[in-house]
Amino acid sequence: MMPLCHDAINITCMNSSWSSDIRASLYSLMVLIILTTLVGNLLVIISISHFKQLHTPTNWLLHSMATVDFLLGCLVMPYSMVRTVEHCWYFGEIFCKVHSSTDIMLSSASIFHLSFISIDRYYAVCDPLRYKAKINILTIFVMIFVSWSVPAVFAFGMIFLGLNFKGAEEIYHKHVNCFGGCYTFFSKVPGVLSFMTSFYVPGSVMLFVYYRIYFIAKGQAKSINAINLQIGLEEKNGMSRNKERKAERTLGIVMGVFVICWCPFFFCIVLDPFLGYTIPLTLNDALSWFGYLNSAFNPLVYAFFYPWFRRALKIILFGQIFQKDSSRCELFLE
């Protein structure tokens, strides 16, 4: 007989049947993901907050995204870890709703930030002369406000009003809902809406924008190569090709990490209602950890790619951040 989450109640959910070794391995892996998320994003937050040279509109957008990912690692992942390994929720029904809402909000907010960062990069690469005029502190503030507010209203409204299982109430209460469980369930319309709002729309913006950046940057590189060839600057021509390859590699990593991390989860969410809810809830729960990985990788992909962040990291790790006037260190040449 399967063990129950709460022995005294007959309608309780079933506890995990995994062995102690498997549980220990899963806990170790998830703790590693949580610590990587917390440490990486905290370093980005400290770097941008401390060093005055990094106080630019673009970097405040990175700072906001790192804050979202840090909060996801701090407020959401530890409780999700217990639920995933134990298959039980021990923290109460109200906190289940708070946790689910916060999970959806912060995960969506992280994706929104990625989308807005792609727009910022588009203007930096494709319209550099008007970049500072268009992407100013007010524009960044609007991007940050939208990235936080829209996911918050959507997530908390969806969960606390019970809109996520609207149209499938009978299935939810008979076959999904049980005492000691806390799984986010979506019926057809809310599932499609969640897919569109949290993944498809911001993801499509990212894909289109990076597609445009790639081809415009490639065209610019060809023009520079042609000019260098005409005046015989072979060295600069080689440098241009290196920069082009670096840009291609960076854009490929950006989109690749995003798609690999979030695609499986969101496609399960949107397809499950149309497949008669045949996808196990534990599988959806496990796939959510692939999405969490995106928050662990964001500092590596979007911050540590830049040489000045590596310089800031070195100063922080060697304790030089506590020296007088360390905030005025030159991390890169203006």
From TrEMBL:
Where the protein is mainly located, per its record?
membrane
The entry's protein name is: Trace amine-associated receptor 1
Please give, as recorded in its UniProt entry, the membrane topology of this protein.
Answer: Multi-pass membrane protein
Q: Which UniProt keywords apply?
A: Cell membrane, Disulfide bond, Endoplasmic reticulum, G-protein coupled receptor, Glycoprotein, Membrane, Receptor, Transducer, Transmembrane, Transmembrane helix
Q: Where is the G-protein coupled receptors family 1 profile domain?
A: 40-302
Entry's Gene3D superfamilies?
Rhodopsin 7-helix transmembrane proteins (1.20.1070.10)
| Listed PROSITE patterns | G_PROTEIN_RECEP_F1_1, G_PROTEIN_RECEP_F1_2
Location in the cell reads: Cell membrane; Endoplasmic reticulum membrane
- GO biological process terms on file: adenylate cyclase-activating G protein-coupled receptor signaling pathway; adenylate cyclase-inhibiting G protein-coupled receptor signaling pathway; phospholipase C-activating G protein-coupled receptor signaling pathway
Q: A cellular component term (GO) from this record? A: plasma membrane
Q: Which SMART domains match?
A: 7TM_GPCR_Srsx
The source organism is: Nannospalax galili (Northern Israeli blind subterranean mole rat)
Question: Which domain of life does this protein belong to?
Answer: Eukaryota
Q: One GO MF term, please?
A: trace-amine receptor activity
Record family assignment: Belongs to the G-protein coupled receptor 1 family.
* Transmembrane regions: 24-48, 60-81, 104-123, 135-163, 193-213, 251-277, 289-309
UniProt-listed CDD domains: 7tmA_TAAR1 (cd15314)
